[in-house]
């Protein structure tokens, strides 16, 4: 091949690469729109980056923010009038034990400055739970959810309890939404209660306010290997934590999630408007679709952008590769149809107004949606601890009790990272096996309680 031909071929390849990059950029841009199209009630704070800082309350944004645009929050710490504002309000000698006296719980150990006000003005409270290792996710949750938030914390032993207190001080000093919106509750294992009462701590500020995850990792890494090994051997009481978080909400409606499930922008306002305008339904559970997204992209600002990411392979339904039954009944194929301009709900897609996309018609036992429902739903069975049969048994009981599951749009939640089976820990499967053995007794009790066998699912073991 002549030098001239090689040069032409090389230039062609470079031109194709530039074209592909340009097309990808434009594909990932949301539809431009006039902000006046969006009702005032649906405007919200926008924090689309992973490591966020303190967000001033007067900064507002709209659905039209492109993915690379975000607010530049202040680096200043929030002033605290007195150090005791950050001391947990509890006496470790007291507390409330669960039915098997395995865990001790404490309600409202530290309450946000606006939690009561937000609870009285909103119809729904976000309830979530976590151990220390994942608590950094609360920063983004608190910035995105503008209503009241109930957070159940888990802590074991003196080392972990001290690290937890230090990190809470850091969160409340750095991030206005955490200081204002959150009601913290606490659970501890009876086998490893701390010996020291709560006390005042200075916030760890080695990384400033801009890196909440790095600050937390620094605290966790200082915990002894002995304690870390103990944590690996002992199960996390997920259902205890879910019940604790839910019952520390003060609203009729509750949105129960896990700490690493991040609400879409404007979700709280959209849901409040939806519930006010919707006919009362005590046995309705409104499903919020959940996607997992590549950590290299910014948080999608709206449904249109999320669907574009999914079509590029940068987002997909939660657990799609590791356990497809987890969200399958939501019917994501149906959910994405409304982003087409000819859809009858396309205007709602643009404005962010929540509506019912469709009903869940193919329920299956292993379904584990994140949903909003009245706080009269069955509690999570606390026999199931660790991983496996924790959320799905509660959802299954709701289904047997006659609840209807209705999928909402254009709202959604996000989990960071595209999951694979290789990333799943071996200990998760061991816990799953233990919980599976308890399921037979659970089935019998549900059958006795509701005295019917909807779609024959009681006798089906998956």
TrEMBL record:
MF GO annotations: glucuronosyltransferase activity; metal ion binding
Keywords: Glycoprotein, Glycosyltransferase, Golgi apparatus, Manganese, Membrane, Metal-binding, Signal-anchor, Transferase, Transmembrane, Transmembrane helix
GO biological process, one term: protein O-linked glycosylation via mannose
Pfam families tied to this protein: Glyco_transf_49
Protein location: Golgi apparatus membrane
Domain of life: Eukaryota
Transmembrane domains' residue ranges: 7-28
Catalytic activity of the protein: 3-O-[beta-D-Xyl-(1->4)-Rib-ol-P-Rib-ol-P-3-beta-D-GalNAc-(1->3)-beta-D-GlcNAc-(1->4)-(O-6-P-alpha-D-Man)]-Thr-[protein] + UDP-alpha-D-glucuronate = 3-O-[beta-D-GlcA-(1->3)-beta-D-Xyl-(1->4)-Rib-ol-P-Rib-ol-P-3-beta-D-GalNAc-(1->3)-beta-D-GlcNAc-(1->4)-(O-6-P-alpha-D-Man)]-Thr-[protein] + UDP + H(+)
Family the UniProt entry places it in: Belongs to the glycosyltransferase 49 family.
Protein's name in the database: Beta-1,4-glucuronyltransferase 1
Source organism (scientific name): Cotesia typhae
């Amino acid at each position: 091949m002549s030098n001239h031909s090689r040069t032409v071929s090389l230039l062609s390849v470079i031109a194709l690469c530039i074209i592909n990059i340009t097309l990808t950029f434009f594909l990932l841009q949301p539809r431009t729109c006039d902000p006046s199209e969006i009702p005032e009630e649906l405007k919200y704070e926008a924090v689309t980056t992973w490591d966020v800082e303190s967000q001033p309350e007067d900064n507002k944004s709209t659905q039209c923010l492109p993915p690379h645009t975000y607010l530049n929050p202040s680096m200043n710490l929030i002033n605290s009038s007195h150090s005791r504002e950050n001391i947990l309000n509890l006496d470790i000698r007291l507390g409330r034990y669960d039915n098997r006296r395995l865990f001790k719980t404490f309600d409202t150990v530290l309450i946000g400055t606006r939690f009561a006000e937000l609870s009285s003005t909103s119809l729904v409270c976000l309830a979530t739970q976590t151990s220390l290792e994942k608590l950094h996710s609360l920063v983004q949750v608190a910035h995105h959810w503008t209503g009241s938030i109930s957070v159940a914390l888990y802590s074991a032993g003196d080392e972990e309890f001290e690290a937890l207190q230090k990190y809470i001080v850091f969160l409340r000093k750095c991030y206005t939404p955490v200081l204002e919106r959150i009601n913290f509750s606490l659970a501890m294992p009876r086998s490893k209660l701390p010996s020291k009462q709560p006390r005042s701590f200075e916030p760890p500020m080695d990384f400033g306010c801009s890196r909440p995850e790095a600050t937390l990792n620094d605290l966790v890494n200082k915990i002894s290997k002995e304690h870390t090994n103990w944590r690996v051997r002992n199960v996390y009481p997920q259902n205890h934590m879910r019940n604790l978080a839910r019952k520390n909400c003060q609203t009729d409606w509750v949105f129960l999630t896990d700490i690493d499930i991040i609400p879409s922008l404007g979700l709280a306002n959209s849901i409040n408007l939806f519930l006010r305008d919707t006919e009362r339904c005590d046995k309705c559970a409104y499903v919020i679709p959940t996607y997992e997204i590549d950590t290299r992209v910014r948080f999608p600002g709206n449904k249109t952008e999320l669907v574009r990411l999914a079509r590029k392979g940068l987002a997909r339904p939660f657990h799609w590769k590791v356990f497809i039954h987890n969200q399958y009944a939501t019917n994501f194929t149906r959910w994405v149809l409304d982003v087409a301009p000819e859809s009858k709900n396309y205007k709602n897609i643009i404005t962010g107004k929540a509506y019912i996309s469709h009903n869940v018609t193919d329920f299956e036992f292993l379904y584990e949606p994140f949903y909003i429902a009245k706080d009269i739903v069955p509690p999570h069975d606390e026999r199931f601890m660790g991983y496996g049969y924790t959320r799905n048994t509660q959802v299954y009981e709701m289904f047997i009790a006659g609840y209807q599951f209705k999928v909402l749009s254009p709202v959604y939640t996000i989990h960071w990272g595209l999951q694979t089976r290789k990333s799943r820990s071996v200990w998760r499967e061991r816990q799953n096996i233990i919980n599976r053995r308890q399921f037979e007794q659970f089935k019998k009790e549900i059958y006795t309680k509701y005295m019917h066998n909807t779609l024959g699912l009681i006798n089906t073991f998956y």
